[in-house]
Amino acid sequence: RISPQQKSRIVEVLREQGRFVAMVGDGANDVHALRAADIAVAMESGTSTARGVAGIVLVRDSFSALIRGAQEATFVLGNSARLSKLFMAKSVYAYLLIFATSLLGLDFPFLPRHGSLTAMLALGIPAVFISISIPPPNAGKEFLTNVLRFALPAGISLAIVAMIVQVFVEWAFSQGVEESRTLVSLVIGFTSIGFMIEVLGFQGASFRSLTRPVMTLFLGGLLGFLLVLTVYTPWLRNFFDFSPINAGEWAVVGVGTAAALAGQYYVSHHWREIIAFLLATPGRKDRLRGRPA
Known about the structure:
Helix content: over 70%
Number of strands: 3
Shape: elongated
Radius of gyration: 26 Å
């Protein structure tokens, strides 16, 4: 039997070692340790003092509730991380486009109705499936790091590609702003669907079971078909203020989408090397390139 001070000290030492500590207690002698723990669990049959400081009270004094609660919390955190990646990527490219178009004096590359359509197809509908699905293991670990590692490269690459497509269409093709907005909106739509496929279907997927990747590819294909259908259905095209596009313009959309997806994938998987290269001295940059200093 150990004293209340010893219990509290054990919890403190574990936390100092970087552990995430849960403490279960039922008596007044457990109060100090319960307060020191990250998660304090008390028994319903315990003292009112222990229940008062605990964050969780086991009403039936059954530890099985903790297992179910931990699983539910893991699901919520994992799905929150997956949703955050998509929504933050959207915020990043939107803010970058606002800044870039203001700085360069260009028209904004898409209308609010375009943004509503792409948000519904690439965020709204997938969010329903993400919220009811079981996330892969460790999806919620290192929450902020994992979200930013995906969202920043995704948003930056998509914003750069969108600006290039807008300038290319308006200057090289001598097209109007309506045509450029149509192509930029399609690039954003298809790229965002690609991001959704990566997050929902392939991140953390085990290829021993192809159910999740295959179902996600099917969902992405269906959403892409709806986007194409919007362009070719006259009343939908007029409602969303899209312009008819030809084969050459579809090629621009395809190349832009592929470039944005490739940029996101490369940067998110090599961000440490990229940062090291940007911060390196000129001599070290030559060595990183494989040249003699």
